[in-house]
Design goal:
It is a single chain. By secondary structure, the protein is of the alpha+beta class. It is built from 11 helices and 10 strands. The strands form 4 sheets. It has a 4-stranded mixed β-sheet, covered by helices on one side. The chain has a two-stranded antiparallel sheet with strand order 1-2.
Length: 371
């Protein structure tokens, strides 16, 4: 049994583990512990001790003082440095659009978005440099800038094309890190009861999960629902907590682990593409969407259960084998985004929590797919 399958089995059977010194103790929710439990705990003891030790050392996120300049999270710091290397870039503009059908009160919608900006400090963050280091200040809440663009005068045959043109134009306008709010709202009117809402937000204060939070809260505020509880913490509290967690012995240990994992890793994966790789990164990539047939995905799920893995692990393995065959390289590194919201308090926050994880696989010596 792999470590991942053991952890999944423990969760399914409601078996709790904890450390008592160097000894792993456990408690079964209902019934008797499975016969294999003690043996598997011994097999994976080193990894389990490390996981439980880190869990017990994790401090609760607490609010920090808002006096003076505030720290960036590590993810924000990375984006900030990229922005300095490429001023005026729009590579970190996240554009989301929604089709709104039915009667719409524009003033009420603007008020709902203003309410969300007041609720989430990160949307009012200004990024500055103090003593050579990037810092954040939180601006007071103000009415959000809301542009309404009437496209109803266009013929229906070209209306959507004009809307797409305008949407791309809004996405191509830079968001200045020192001038909050780092989001732009446009409402395109197609007819009295059909609108397109576009929100462009900078990645340094948001991620895909955050867009879902924003949409959910926008709908609640527009409908006048009072179900939004006061946020116990804000993103800047998470940023401070993250630094406290890592700027000690954990940072040195984690850094040593990743240095070992990525030592001598290939800088690029050379694929036989139609065009040459540009000498400088131009962010002109694209996204290609596809669907996996239901019958095929059912087989993927079956294989993952048999191997004690997840469908993600099976599909990632297949993807890496494809990259190996196309590139002729046995050392393959693939990046995958991680939600990085392990604390319950972070689930309702807007902010840049996403973390890209580098997964390296050695495919030399012709390993089997199961390996």
């Amino acid at each position: 049994m792999t470590l991942i399958s053991l952890l999944k089995d423990l969760k399914n059977k409601d078996i709790k583990l904890w450390l008592d010194g160097d000894t792993i103790q456990y408690k079964v929710g209902d019934g008797e512990p499975p016969e294999y439990l003690q043996t598997q705990i011994e097999t994976h003891k080193a990894d389990l001790v490390q996981i439980l030790s880190r869990s017990q050392k994790t401090r609760q996120i607490e609010k920090v003082s808002r006096d003076g300049w505030l720290p960036l999270s590590y993810a924000q710091e990375g984006v900030w440095y990229l922005e300095q290397l490429n001023p005026g870039t729009t590579a970190h503009n996240m554009s989301s659009t929604w089709m709104l059908n039915g009667e719409l009160d524009e003033g009420l919608l603007q008020g709902a978005l203003t309410q969300i900006t007041a609720r989430h400090e990160v949307l009012r963050s200004a990024f500055q440099v103090v003593d050579g280091q990037p810092c954040i200040s939180i601006n007071e809440a103000e009415e959000i800038d809301f542009r309404s663009i009437d496209l109803s005068r266009f013929d229906a045959t070209i209306q959507m094309a004009e809307a797409e043109k305008q949407i791309k134009a809004q996405q191509a306008i830079p968001l200045e890190l020192g001038s909050p709010p780092l989001l732009r709202v446009c409402l395109f009117k197609l007819s009295p009861d059909r609108h397109i809402l576009q929100i462009v937000i900078h990645h340094i204060i948001s991620d895909a999960w955050s867009v879902g939070v924003l949409l959910r809260e926008m709908c609640a505020a527009y409908d006048g629902r009072s179900g939004l509880l006061e946020l116990p913490i804000q993103y800047v509290d998470f940023a401070a907590w993250q630094r406290q967690q890592l700027e000690n012995e954990n940072q040195a240990r984690d850094l040593a682990y990743w240095k070992k994992q990525l030592k001598d890793a290939p800088a690029l994966l050379e694929l036989p593409t139609d065009f040459q790789r540009p000498p400088e990164l131009d962010y002109a990539g694209d996204t290609i969407w596809g669907e996996i047939p239901a019958a095929l995905f059912s087989r993927v799920e079956s294989l993952s259960k048999t191997e004690g893995a997840t469908p993600f692990m099976v599909l990632l393995s297949a993807f890496k084998l494809l990259l190996q065959r196309q590139s002729g390289t046995d050392d393959v590194v693939v990046g995958t985004p991680m939600v990085n919201r392990s604390q319950v308090e972070t689930e309702d926050l807007i902010g840049f929590f996403l973390n890209n994880l580098a997964l390296r696989t050695d495919l030399s010596n012709d390993p089997t797919f199961r390996q």
